[in-house]
Amino acid sequence: MSSTAPDGRAGGGAHDGPGSGPSGPSLYPYFLILFGASAGLASIVVLLAELRSELGFSETGIGLAIASGFGAAFVAALVMAPHADRGRAPLMLRGGLVMAVVGMVLLAVGDALWHYVLGRAVFGFALGTAGPAARRTVIVADPENLGRNMGRLGAWDVGGFVAGPMIAAGLTAVGGFRFTFWSMAVAMALLIPLSFRAQPDTAAKDEDGLGMKGLLHIRRLVGALFVVSAYFLFIGAFEAVWILEMDHRGADQAMLSIGITLAALPIPLFAPLGGVLAQKYGARRWAVGGLVIISLVTTFYGVVPGVAWMVALTMATSVLEGFTFPSAPMLVAAAVPAERQAAAQGLMSAVEVATAAVAAAVLAMVYDAHGDLVAWAVTAGSMAILLVIGAILTRPEDRQLVRPGVPDDPIRRPFQ
């Protein structure tokens, strides 16, 4: 039996379980697998310096490996995501997990640069395949609790990235970087049986095979993508400028690892509540309002002195991120019907990767030429421009806001 949500979208099937709605599939296989994949990605990121020192890779070589991961994730998000709209989300989850294991094994056995470029590319393709599949299922399985479930998905995803550096540091201390990669490969392989418990949703499917066709003609979706770009512009700046500035201020590798963990920790803690509040008050106002505040706080990154104040300010920003970031994929979800959810989320993932990559490259050059104060000011100003465009394009056509607590079309509320 399938159910129909008040917004007209079909609900989940009869596979009850933790993390699901009253008639939806269990979401915990999706949560746990994204946690494992994110922890694996974090272990790769944190060991880049180790690879450089142990294997003698150049900065250019390391950059090539990083770029291959971004590029593969970008392609996978566009090419693979539409298949989840045709009922293949569980298969994509399993396939993504297997590819992640293969990618980690390549990193464990490799000794030449091309091994690491290929391994990082395979791992990136795995993430780009599994991510949109998980998001589609979480979105359509239980529309009444969309915000809560999207917050939980984000919490598990970011939680893996928070745990990854600590896990990698401990494993590397015991047996070196190869032991770390082997251990992460084994850990993800142990999740493969769990992936067979992932059940398909029973919501409407893309029977016509539309895929990405026509998505960029949907005004509200384009507006939501501008909002997403604003957030990932900040993420790109963080990866490029924040790390360099912490190093410039005298933070060693241990302090960087601790700083990154502390900085990211509030996100998984507050994301579930942030998703609930976004659904209650409207994802549009929640996303735009939260990102406006984040952009204002960002201007102070180039002002505060020392390492401790930088970490403290970053933790404060992460609290805002935890409350805010589930609302962006919710805004994307509200722009398209059930049968196009994975394609829209895949397009969003591609925008995220592209924005972060371009922002990191450009803002690193700004930082190198003009310092952190200018780099963070440019970041905040660029975020503001993207948010203004996004707010205009996602504005309700009648411009009438829905008051909290007043019954309304659930699809409309996220645009308030």
State the helix count.
15
Name the CATH superfamily classification of the largest domain.
MFS general substrate transporter like domains
Remind me, CATH topology of the largest domain?
Growth Hormone, Chain: A
Radius of gyration: 21 Å
Q: Helical residue percent? A: over 70%
Structural class estimated from helices and strands = mainly alpha
Tell me the CATH architecture of the largest domain.
Up-down Bundle
Query: How many strand units?
Result: 0
Task: Summarize the structure in words.
By secondary structure, the chain is an all-alpha fold. It has 2 domains: 16-202, Up-down Bundle (Growth Hormone, Chain: A); 217-416, Growth Hormone, Chain: A (Up-down Bundle). The chain contains 15 helices and no strands. Helix 6 packs antiparallel against helix 9. The longest helix is centred in the middle third of the chain and has 44 residues, at 146-189.
What's the topology here?
Layout: H1 28-46, H2 48-55, H3 59-79, H4 81-109, H5 113-141, H6 146-189, H7 192-195, H8 219-248, H9 253-264, H10 266-281, H11 283-298, H12 306-324, H13 327-334, H14 341-370, H15 372-393
Short description:
By secondary structure, the protein is an all-alpha fold.
Could you list some keywords that capture this structure?
single chain; mainly alpha; Growth Hormone, Chain: A; 2 domains; 15 helices; globular; disordered N terminus
